[in-house]
Amino acid sequence: MGLEFLEGNEAIARGAMKANCNFFAGYPITPSSSILQYMLNMVPYSGGVAIQAEDEIASIGFCIGAAMAGSKVLTATSGPGISLYSENIGLAIMGETPMVIVNVQRQGPATGSATKGAEGDIQFTRWCTSGGLPVIVLSPATVGEAYELTYRAFNLSEQYRLPVFLLTNKEIGITRESVDLDTIALPSLVERARVVADEEYLPHYFDKLSEVPAISDFGGEHIARFTTSTHDKAAYLTTSPLVIQEMIDHYTAKIEEAADELALVKEDFQDGAEILIISYGITSRSTAVAVREARAKGVKISALTLQTLYPVSKTAMTSAMNGMKKVIVPEMNMGQYILEVERLVPAGVELVGVNKMDTTLISPDEILERGGLR
After folding, report:
1. Domain boundary among 129, 161, 183
2. In the predicted model, is pLDDT for residue 297 greater than 90?
3. Domain for residue 227, yes or no?
4. Is beta strand 163-169 parallel, antiparallel or unpaired with respect to 99-105?
5. Cα 222–chain centre separation
6. Is residue 238 in a domain?
7. Any domain includes 292
8. Confidence of residue 39 (pLDDT cuts 50, 70, 90)
9. DSSP β-bridge partners for residue 278
């Protein structure tokens, strides 16, 4: 279609449609509401279903049912909505349910500032449900990336049979940029592995712990069982500690063993640099400017931008921090992802957080000054 002037929320909707999303359910909440509007306008015209549900709990419930019946599913909300989603997110993890969940972050806690921005849901998104099992979380920094990573999120949800989060924020969601979506390189579309009609079906069958089970859509050729309680490979409830642990190990292994494959990062490295800035989301755009300004003044500095927040890109971060004397992590929160960096930073390396949560963006000057580069 050529160059367009799009907001991030529309790019998310377009990315979902590009991935053949055919079901959406959501409830209006600033600043994600326009995703609901775009999907209501788009999905029915492609033969799918889009619903404005009565609340967030109904929205995620509709999505789980649709996903298990064979649909490619999207829902979108903000931080308070994720709170209400949390129990059913656990059900989606337990049931190995493919879906994409968009969290357009806003200032918190609680209702916070509904029309103001922050990136305070990092740890919340990772640990929002009981059990503490791993999830996949992607974070775009631009409108173009919002389109691309939404599409990729659908592929990952289908490939690994689990809910995948797209963690964006108010600034990206409702800010318009010029972008040509046709120029964005996308991988081939992935569809979930399905059991053929004449094969025996066990809803959670695997030989190797990291193996992703094939699925049979509800209403199809097989009897499909689905439960929120601990169960075995056949989805029958169990209290056996051995079986329960095997299933937990399976949910964990299929993500953690693929961590390097799932790692999406952007590198801007400079030979001889001993300072590294690790950033993500909207703050990575300020980081890019700060790096250019520092280099213009003779500072040797590198930058690593994370598009995959979880599972943690351990290999990429460890490699980037090798040989550094200082690592700076700017965040629009009071220090959340820096906790992941802290676990990996080599001994003797100075780790500096640049944090604020006053609803305004972190500027390049703040990164330079508070990072000790001026």
Report:
1. 183
2. yes
3. no
4. parallel
5. 32
6. no
7. yes
8. very high
9. 304
Query: Are residues 150 and 47 both part of a single domain?
Result: yes
Phi first, then psi, for residue 260 (nearest 5°) are -65, -40
> What span, in angstroms and rounded, lies between the C-alpha atoms of 140 and 337?
15
Instruction: For residue 199, give the DSSP letter.
Output: S
Contact partners, residue 103, CB within 8 Å, separation at least 6: 32, 76, 77, 78, 79, 81, 82, 121, 125, 165, 166, 167, 168
The answer, yes or no, to whether the previous bond of 364 is cis (omega within 30 of 0) is no
Based on the fold, state whether residues 25 and 155 are members of the same structural domain.
yes
Determine the average pLDDT of the residues in 201-218.
96
Task: Give pLDDT, residue 224.
Answer: 86
Q: Convert 111-123 to b/e letters by CB count within 10 Å (16 or more is b).
A: ebeeebbbbbbbb
Supply 151's token pair.
Answer: 């599409």
Mean pLDDT for 71-84 is: 97
What confidence tens digit (pLDDT) does each residue in 302-334 have?
A: 999 999 999 999 999 999 999 999 999 999 999
Secondary structure tally for the chain: helices H, strands E: 13, 14
**Reduced DSSP (H G I as helix, E B as strand, rest coil) percent helix, strand, coil of the chain, to 5:** 35, 20, 45
Q: What is the mean pLDDT of the chain?
A: 96
Higher pLDDT, 219 or 351: 351
Number of domains in the chain: 2
Q: Torsions phi, psi of 46, nearest 5?
A: -105, 10
Report helix, strand or coil for 16: helix
The whole domain housing 356 covers 266-370
Q: Which two tokens stand for residue 41?
A: 């306008």
CB 47 within 8 A of CB 2: no
Picking from 152, 183, 214, the residue at the C-terminal end of a domain is: 183
> 198 falls in which pLDDT band (50, 70, 90)?
confident
